[in-house]
Every structure is written in structure tokens, then in C-alpha cells.
Automatic annotation (TrEMBL):
EC identifiers of the protein: 2.7.13.3
Keyword flag Ribosomal protein: no
Organism: Lwoffella lincolnii
Reactions performed catalytically: ATP + protein L-histidine = ADP + protein N-phospho-L-histidine
Name the UniProt record assigns to this protein: histidine kinase
Length: 432
């Protein structure tokens, strides 16, 4: 859209440069057809003065208002009228270029200014018709006829080129605007889906807070009773484990409620996520440590970071996205997970596992940002992850992998590889 606006604002100056070139070429070409040197010099002088006016107007009349532009278009008409007056008046085929002045005016001016330039063009045409001054040529009839026909052909070619260029450009611009409109409509639809899930999560968080609090109090009461009775130590250990799991659920629920409240204070959900910066070299090791504590039977590796890395995404959102990917690997019966970081035009997080893999039709649904069927959840985690990452100039892709058998593995092994692309934050780009 901005490219389209820049082109439109420059169109009058591009046209004026073209008009100056046409004046100069016509003046030099007229000398080859026997027009007197006096008239040729007059035409060259008018062309030179017009070129100077264009240069001065370009540098001295910035910024451009509608009234300033109208005055300059009026000067364009005056310059062409003066040029045509000394080169055959209304009989000169170049008078058709008045139409190009009106056409360019219609790109950048208001309706009343366009009508004003159109009326001035008609008045200039009538004045040239009334005050006709013929060209002085040695062979008046034959030479003037050839010159007129050649001029008509030249004006036709120029008008055709200009019309074709404008038509092609505006057709392309309309296509870009239509695609941008489609993307905006899709973004609105995605936002509605995310907001619907957020509302559902808020309701669930509200409903779960009471039973979790009750379970905390009940387990504490049971633990106190068992301690007083000095009962089975193994049962006490089970109660302590249950308490830790309930506390973990309570912490996760509080984090969800805090995140929802924070989002409600923002005027725009996408703006909130776009203005956040996350230090990946701190978040990712903590995330892996937390996840490893809950899944000690899974071997997960992460190479150490050698430099601070700041990415353009909300920390809580990135945390949830990666945890969802790791949990999906566990559901696919993975026992070994490798996390790698690559640095290119964006930060790339590769998460590979040796699980059962993922079906191709599910990969296609993820690309289309549709939820997939899952036996262990709603199947919307990856869909929401893709929507969130798209808002912050990121992306997530998933593919099924197959490792051929070798000396250590007697049969082919399958797995899944998830690639998360994140944009660098502005602070990280400034450091680079």
C-alpha cells in the first residue's frame, strides 16, 4: 500500500520530466523539417524555461498541498500552451497531451481541482484555436502534412504507452490490495477463534479454582492427621506427592489467570504480543528444567547458549508453545528429544523426537491453521501456536521423519521434527 502511495505522489513529477523531454525532442526534430531557426530557438527557449520551472517547483514547493499542486498543473498548461502557440497552435498534434495533464491531475487532486484543470485545458485549446499562428516552412503544404502525420503518430505512441503503464500498474496495485484485504479478513477470523478459546480458558480457570483449593486444604488436613497418628510412612509420601501435584496445578492455574487478566488490560491482543521481547537463552533452559522435572523418564537435550538471544514474542506464549510441542512428543511415545538452535535471518528452534510421528493429513491441517483430532486433548495447541507466531512474524512447521536402520538400530525409526521460527527483537538487531 505504501509503495502505491509513493508512486502516486511521484507520478506528476515523472510526467513533467517526460513532458520536458517531449518538448526538447520535438524542438530538435522540428529543425530537421525545415522550420525556421527563429521558431526553433523560441521552442527551445520555452522548453528550457519550463524545465527550470519544474526543477525549482520540485525543490521549493515541498511539502505539497492541493493548492500548490493545482498552481503547478496550471503552469504546466501555460507552458504547453506557449509551446504550442509557437509550433502550430491547435493544428499541432501535441495538443492532445493536454489530456495527459488532466489524467495525471486526477491521480493526486480533489474533484474541484480536477474540474478546474479540465476547464483551463478547454480554455487553452480555444485560445490556441482562435489565435492561430502557422509554422513558417519553405515547403509549406507537403512538409507540414508530413510533420502533422508524424506528430499524430508520436502522440499516439506516447499516449498508448502511458495508458498501458497506468493500467498495468493500477491492476497490479488492486490485486495487491485485494490480497491484503483477504489476509486482514483471515486475521480477524483467527483473532475471533483465539478470543473464543481465551474466553473458554477463563471460564475453566474460574471453575477449577474452587475444587483445586478444596483439594489443597483436604490433602493438608489428611497429612496432618496421618502425622499425628504416626501412620504409614509410605502413605505419607504418597500424600506429599499428591500435594506437590495439586500445588503445581494451582500454580499453573494462577499463571493462566494472571495472563488472562493481563491480556484484558490491553486494548489489542495482537499489539500486546508484538510489543514483548523474550530472552531465549534464559527462558529455554528454565523451560527444559521444569519439563524434565515433570518427565524424568524422557531424555531431552539442549546445547548451551554462547550468547544472549532476544526474540520478538511474549515469554508466556513461547513457553506454552514449546511445552505443548514437548507434551505432544510424549503422547507420541517418544523417549528421546533433541532441541537445537540455529541462527540465520531468524532464530530457528528445532525439536526432534523418536516418537510415532504424525500423519500427513494432520500436517496439512496444521498448515491450514485448523485444529487436528487428538485423543489426549482438543488438538488446538498447534493451530493456536501458528496463529500466535504469525502475529509476531514467526512460524511453526511440523514434519514426519524416518531414520533408516543401521548398526545400532536394527529397524527403521520414525519421529517428528517441529521447526519454530522467531524474529529477532529490535534490541538484538541493534547489538548485531
Amino acid at each position: 500500500m505504501m509503495t502505491h502511495l509513493n508512486f502516486v505522489s511521484k507520478a506528476p513529477w515523472i510526467a513533467r520530466g517526460t513532458w520536458v523531454i517531449i518538448m526538447l525532442i520535438s524542438s530538435l526534430f522540428a529543425a530537421q523539417w525545415g522550420i525556421t531557426s527563429t521558431q526553433v530557438n523560441t521552442l527551445l527557449m520555452v522548453s528550457g524555461l519550463y524545465a527550470l520551472v519544474v526543477i525549482f517547483a520540485y525543490f521549493l514547493c515541498q511539502p505539497m498541498s492541493h493548492n500548490k499542486q493545482f498552481m503547478i498543473f496550471a503552469l504546466d498548461l501555460m507552458a504547453w500552451s506557449l509551446y504550442l502557440y509557437h509550433s502550430g497552435g491547435a493544428s499541432n498534434p501535441l495538443i492532445t497531451l493536454f489530456l495527459t495533464i488532466v489524467a495525471v491531475t486526477s491521480l493526486v487532486q480533489s474533484t474541484r481541482h480536477i474540474i478546474g484543470i479540465a476547464l483551463l485545458s478547454i480554455m487553452a485549446y480555444m485560445m490556441l484555436w482562435h489565435f492561430y499562428q502557422p509554422l513558417m516552412m519553405p515547403h509549406d503544404h507537403q512538409s507540414s502534412e508530413k510533420l502533422h502525420l508524424l506528430g499524430m503518430f508520436g502522440v499516439f505512441v506516447f499516449a498508448l504507452m502511458m495508458l498501458t503503464a497506468l493500467t498495468v500498474y493500477f491492476k497490479t496495485a488492486m490485486g495487491r490490495n485485494y490480497r491484503a484485504l483477504q489476509q486482514a479478513q483471515q486475521a480477524i477470523h483467527q483473532q475471533r477463534r483465539v478470543l473464543a478459546v481465551s474466553s473458554l480458558a477463563a471460564n475453566i480457570a474460574h471453575e477449577m479454582s474452587t475444587p483445586i483449593t478444596s483439594m489443597q486444604l483436604l490433602t493438608q488436613h489428611i497429612a496432618n492427621q496421618l502425622t499425628e497418628l504416626d501412620d504409614d510412612d509410605e502413605l505419607l509420601e504418597d500424600i506429599d506427592l499428591l500435594k506437590s501435584q495439586i500445588n503445581l496445578c494451582h500454580q499453573s492455574l494462577n499463571r493462566l489467570k494472571t495472563h488472562i487478566q493481563h491480556q484484558e488490560t490491553e486494548q489489542n491482543w495482537s499489539l500486546s504480543s508484538n510489543t514483548m521481547t523474550t530472552q531465549l537463552d534464559k527462558l529455554l533452559p528454565k523451560l527444559i528444567a521444569d519439563w524434565r522435572f515433570l518427565n524424568p523418564h524422557i531424555n531431552i537435550t539442549l546445547p548451551p547458549f554462547t550468547t544472549p538471544v532476544h526474540v520478538h514474542i511474549n515469554a508466556e506464549q513461547l513457553y506454552s508453545i514449546i511445552v505443548n510441542v514437548l507434551n505432544n512428543a510424549v503422547q507420541a511415545e517418544a523417549t528421546d528429544i533433541k532441541v537445537r538452535i540455529e541462527y540465520a535471518q531468524s532464530v530457528i528452534i528445532q525439536i526432534s523426537d523418536n516418537g510415532n510421528g504424525i500423519e500427513l493429513h494432520k500436517i496439512a491441517k496444521i498448515k491450514e491453521q485448523q485444529p487436528i483430532k487428538s485423543d489426549n486433548g482438543w488438538g488446538m495447541g498447534l493451530m493456536l501456536a501458528k496463529i500466535i507466531l504469525n502475529y509476531v512474524d514467526g512460524d511453526i512447521s511440523i514434519q514426519h521423519t524416518t531414520t533408516p536402520k543401521n548398526t545400532t538400530t536394527p529397524k527403521n525409526t520414525t519421529g517428528t521434527q517441529v521447526i519454530i521460527k522467531l524474529a529477532y527483537s529490535e534490541s538484538c538487531l541493534n547489538i548485531k
